[in-house]
């Protein structure tokens, strides 16, 4: 009986230490996780960023699971522009309440920064209520909000994304 408790304790500690290591740097994700797919997002023929989806295993992508989406920017954007476009897309997909929109704007202002061509933002879907953001490999913020994973990642990976073909490429389905 004691061995069961020791094994369960060991598994809990191992899982926690894995999350701590991932929280320190997104480089481990890029090196050790499975690359599901990749796509380039363009607007009127101007390439904006390259998206790459990573999963911890080779199982088919599940929006309710654990995964990481890295956007490598191909041009510069201001933090304000990134926040505004994120809020606009989430509103388009699911219509945020005024209160939730204000909360999300405040939360994203701690997570987003001005980006230049070549910068990488990685968003780790840690749980349904948590996303860890990295800027060029270093943890930027830990965003906690009810059901944020599906709200945020549906921009690229949901059923109502603007770029269905890009979503399928990210998921490794095309």
Could you walk me through the main structural features you see in this protein, from its secondary elements to its overall organization?
This protein has helices spanning 2-24, 27-32, 79-94, 98-111, 148-157, 164-170, and strands at residues 34-43, 46-55, 67-73, 120-127, 130-135, 138-144. With 174 residues, it is α+β, with helices and mostly antiparallel strands. It has one domain: Chalcone isomerase (3-Layer(bba) Sandwich), CATH 3.50.70.10. The protein has a 6-stranded antiparallel β-sheet. A hairpin with a 2-residue loop joins strand 5 and strand 6 (138-144). The protein starts with a helix and ends with a helix.
Please render the helix and strand layout as text.
Elements: H1 2-24, H2 27-32, E1 34-43, E2 46-55, E3 67-73, H3 79-94, H4 98-111, E4 120-127, E5 130-135, E6 138-144, H5 148-157, H6 164-170
Antiparallel strand pairs: 1-2, 2-3, 3-4, 4-5, 5-6
Helix pairs in contact: 3-4, 3-5
Please sum up the structure shown:
This protein has six helices and six strands. The protein is of the alpha+beta class.
CATH class: Alpha Beta
Uncertain segments: 4-23
Stated plainly, the CATH topology is called Chalcone isomerase
The percent of residues in helical segments reads: 40-55%
Q: Kindly estimate the percentage of residues that lie in beta strands according to DSSP.
A: 25-35%
For the secondary structure, the number of strands is 6
Number of self-contained structural domains: 1
Structural class: alpha+beta
Give the helices and strands as they follow along the chain: HHEEEHHEEEHH
Alpha plus pi helix count: 6
């Amino acid at each position: 009986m004691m061995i069961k408790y020791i094994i369960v304790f060991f598994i809990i500690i191992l899982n926690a230490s894995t999350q701590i290591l991932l929280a320190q740097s997104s480089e481990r994700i890029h090196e050790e996780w499975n690359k599901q797919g990749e796509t380039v997002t363009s607007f009127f023929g101007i390439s904006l960023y390259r998206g790459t989806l990573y999963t911890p295993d080779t199982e088919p992508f599940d929006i309710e699971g654990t995964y990481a989406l890295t956007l490598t920017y191909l041009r510069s954007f201001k933090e304000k522009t990134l926040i505004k476009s994120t809020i606009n897309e989430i509103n388009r997909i699911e219509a945020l309440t005024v209160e939730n929109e204000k909360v999300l704007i405040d939360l994203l202002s701690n997570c987003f920064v001005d980006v230049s061509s070549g910068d990488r933002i990685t968003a780790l879907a840690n749980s349904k209520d948590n996303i860890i953001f990295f800027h060029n490999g270093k943890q930027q913020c830990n965003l906690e909000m009810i059901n944020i994973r599906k709200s945020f990642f549906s921009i690229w990976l949901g059923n109502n994304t603007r770029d269905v073909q890009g979503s399928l490429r990210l998921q490794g389905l095309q």
